[in-house]
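Section 5.1 Outputs to date
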Amino acid sequence: MKQRIFALLLALVMGSGLLCLSALAAERQPAQDAAPTAATEITIFFVDEMHLDAVYCNAVQNDELPIIPITSEGVRASSGELLAPFAEDRYGNPVYKAVIKTKYDYVVFHNGSGGDYSTVDLYFKTAAGTAAHVVYVANRNTPSSGNKYKVTIADDVFRLVSRTPAGCLAPGSLLLESLVTGETVTEPDPDAAALGHAFGDWAVATPAGCTEPGEELRVCTRCGEKETRAIDALGHTPGEAVKENEIAATCTEPGGYDSVVYCTVCRAELSREHTERPALGHTPAAAVKEKEIAATCTEAGGYDMVTTCAVCGTELKREHTDVPALGHDWGEWCPIPMNFCTDPRIEDRTCNRCGATESRTLPPDGHTPGEPVKENAIAPTCEAAGGYDMVVYCSACGAEIRREHTDTPALGHEWSEWAVTRPATCTEAGEESRLCARCLATEARAIDAPGHDWSAPVYEWADDLSSCTATRVCKHDAGHIETETAAVTSEITLEPTVDAEGERTYTAAFENPAFQTQTRTEAIDKLEPPAPVNPFVDVKEGAYYYDAVLWAVNAEPQITNGTDETHFSPGNTCTRAQVVTFLWRAMGCPAPKTTNNPFTDVPADKYYTDAVLWAVENEITNGMSDTSFAPGRPCTRAQVVTFLWRAEHKPAPTSTQSPFSDVTGGYYYDAVLWAVERGITNGMTATTFVPDGPCTRGQIVTFLYRNFN
């Protein structure tokens, strides 16, 4: 490829002729005998894309100044030395500089070999800054006449000074310096087109309200250019209906109230319905007695039973009741003292109310037998019989009613326990005797030799479990002892893991069949868990979410991964779908028990489908409406702590006083207090929680980590 070519070369064509060009492209024929002038310097620049075999440049007619040959290999002085490049042009080609001195106001260039060449570009300037005259001749010594040949004089040649890289909207540029005039110009860099903006992630700049849209912002990481887009208004969130303007109904007057629904976010009134309450009617109280006249033993009495309204006191009903005479309330009969066993009984009694009296006569009671008693008792001995009389007397008058005699047989000896008088040994018989406690008679008997009676073996392990010793002792004679020490073998019977300890079992086997094989176990420490891997360049150690991110990424099952292989994007806002999915995975990915999906915006094949069904099933969330979950909507900080609180079965906070000026009520009030007490969050400041602020990826994994760890 040819760019603009190149230094002090002229276009050559076959034939002869003379062509003279001035800086204004004027033609003239130089005189052969033009008078010499003072030596003039002509500075010439050219590139080395030369294809001429040999073109020489010298003064007209046999000039005494040096000849500078120009060849395809570069620029050489008349001494044959290769000249070094002077600079580079805008395309990176080397530019050469040559200075030609002449006594005339023009220079002749000629083809030494007479070849046929095409027109080429020529760059030049004189010391005075004006163009020199250029003449072409086909023969070195004799300028020809007749035909004229074209020589192109190029405008300029430029050196690359510096490059300006491309920006987001502006392409790169080249700063060029003219080697002819020394002036600088700026041109677009064809290899450095405008880059376009490199915008970061969208972040919420102004949260959306119920009726006011919000705004998201993103910034170009190269030039700082900002771009915004609107966030749709969230719509009102109806709260529980509350009563207002309530008028209580009375017994005779109706009442009523307004049932009002407000938005839980902005407190706007969404609906108001009035409900009438009918008059209550009278509520009868318990009837009470009035105008009561007490009855006596012989005179009748009476009273009124009156019913009034328990609310307003109006008398509703009055009924009179007569009470008949009571009759006498007689006391107990009191007998006149005498022997009632054989004499008639005379008794009096008195009315407890009016004091009236009456008497009566009853037949004799007869004797009342008492408990039998022993009399005339003779005690039996070990060998002689005895006896006694059982006598019954009247418990009222003491007369004897009945007497019966009973014989008592001899008692027999009352022997004591056998006591050893001569102990038996394991192999020799002994003797024991006993004594009658009543008559002190004695008797004796032999004790058989019992043989050894071994105790249960006792096993003692060495502290390092290298041996086990078994010992047993005769119960009859503690001096009779058997013992054996067994060697111990060991093996790992349960390999330790990261989650559970292992176990090593030690076994001691004895030769004496009286001793049983013994085993002991020893716990083996759990294996150290592998260090969590942090693949993210935007999660730095020391950040509040550092441990939480590593826990979430390395958990089993994994709670979340990064936004790409090397970025977690902790500042990105989390959607409602992402938050319930993170919570569901932290709970172990429990399968929902139902496949009934109430939400039209939760397709069956999304990553968050099972998580949403599980959350609704467990009353962790009810969606934004009966049919909408809004999975792509940013999840607020209030919603996140409420999801966590409900997943833990709504534990009641110990305090009812909120430390935050922006948490004074609402569905999330208890959840925020519980989260602060549990250390899950401390709020955005000491006095603000920012419940409607978007929850970032760094915040949600931190909330989960603090709750489950």
